[in-house]
Design a protein that fits this description.
The protein has helices at residues 10-15, 27-36, 74-78, 199-203, 216-221, 231-245, and strands at 21-25, 93-102, 110-123, 127-138, 144-155, 168-170, 189-194, 254-261, 270-278, 281-288, 293-302. By secondary structure, the chain is α+β, with helices and mostly antiparallel strands. Strands 1, 2, 3, 4, 5, 6, 7, 8, 9, 10 and 11 form an eleven-stranded antiparallel β-sheet that branches.
Length: 309
């Protein structure tokens, strides 16, 4: 139990305002992120992916992948979160879910102001589930670019509220970010891609320097045999597969992304992403081939379909 019942005051917690954060990026950050989620990792001249890492055919700007938006939230959690009456051990934090709405294609460079709020907190006894919502506005124009909802699973931080009526707060519709129902039929399409043994070491250069992903001793203390892959890296691989297989390589087709991290991925493992189409929603699940385990499941809402699907 991370916080005793006497310390926890839900009114105080819900009235608490989280600080704004800022995020500035350029084309180099966009390309390093794309390399971190395996763009051109199997084929250096991949015709769908070169535009994410290089000025292909003289294109003006390197194109940002929609999952690049997940980095905008980095400041709130990686620098520690201060909530009144609520404590947790950051070394036991696991990423549980990510939900992203993209309102317009991400620019290749920008300065953003992030408005952060508490979207949920649940006492699950053995763990607490904490959700943060981040709305990212372009500095200058003030235009809303995207919204991220980050769910973290805080092992050992449950039991902070009255156990006969555990605290449960959510400020968003229940159909957003839920674990999806995977269809029983054969998938429309399947994409297989091996992550590199050094994948987490490359991905961390995009700003998530949690030693859980790089330091063998730290990973052991957190309960893992070796460093694990960032959840957002796995999500990046999966959504990149959907862009390639369903969106014909067009990253701007992606409107909404939802994913729940079901079990841990180790760098070097092979990811198999299965995709089903239901209207303009792509349901997907990603498995680790070597262990035949489903590690991620969710959906992507797209703006339209190419005629060949
Ligand atoms: C840029 C911002 C970055 C923020 C994050 C920074 C830090 C990043 C860290 C990582 O990337 S960690 C790597 C990625 N994440 C993982 O590898 C986690 C994989 N998932 C798991 O290992 C397990 O799912 C779990 C999270 C340990 C939970 O498993 P457990 O068996 O303990 O839970 P249950 O008993 O099944 O369920 C209890 C309760 O919790 C709900 N729940 C379960 N899993 C999740 C989840 N992934 N997300 C949200 N909620 C989850 C579940 O529904 C149960 O609730 P009730 O049904 O009882 O209401």
């Amino acid at each position: 139990m991370a916080t005793s019942d006497s310390e926890f005051n839900s009114d105080l917690l819900l009235a608490h305002k989280l600080p704004e954060t800022r995020y500035t990026y350029n084309e180099r950050d966009v390309a390093i992120y794309a390399l971190g989620i395996g763009a051109c990792g199997q084929d250096a001249v991949d015709s769908d992916e070169l535009k994410f890492v290089y000025h292909r055919n003289g294109q003006d700007l390197i194109q940002a992948l929609p999952t690049f938006a997940s980095l905008f939230t980095l400041g709130s959690l990686t620098e520690g979160l201060d909530l009144p009456g609520f404590k947790y051990d950051p070394s036991l934090l696991l990423h549980g879910q990510q939900y992203i709405e993209i309102y317009r294609p991400l620019p290749s460079k920008a300065s953003l102001v992030n408005k952060v709020s508490l979207a949920g907190l649940q006492d699950k006894g053995k763990a607490a589930i904490l959700e943060l919502e981040t709305r990212s506005y372009e500095e200058g124009s003030g235009e809303l670019l995207c919204m991220n909802r980050t769910t973290v699973f805080l092992r050992g931080a449950g039991g902070f509220s009255n156990s006969s009526q555990p605290f449960s707060y959510k400020n968003y519709p229940s159909n957003q970010g839920l674990a999806v129902k995977i269809p029983q039929r054969q998938p429309l399409t399947v994409w297989e891609e091996r992550t590199q043994p050094s994948q987490a070491l490359l991905y961390r250069l995009s700003g998530d320097y949690n030693p859980l992903h790089s330091d063998p001793e730290f990973a052991k203390l957190a309960g893992f045999p070796r460093p694990i892959l960032h959840g957002l890296c796995t999500l990046g691989f999966a959504i990149k597969a959907i862009i390639k297989c369903v969106c014909k390589g067009d990253p701007t087709a992606v409107k909404t992304i939802s994913g729940r991290f079901l079990t841990t991925v180790f760098p070097g493992e092979t990811l198999i992403t299965e995709m089903w189409l239901e209207g303009l929603r792509v349901i997907y699940q990603t498995k680790v081939k070597e262990r035949n385990k489903t590690v991620l499941a969710g959906y992507v809402d797209i703006r339209g379909l190419s005629s060949s699907l």
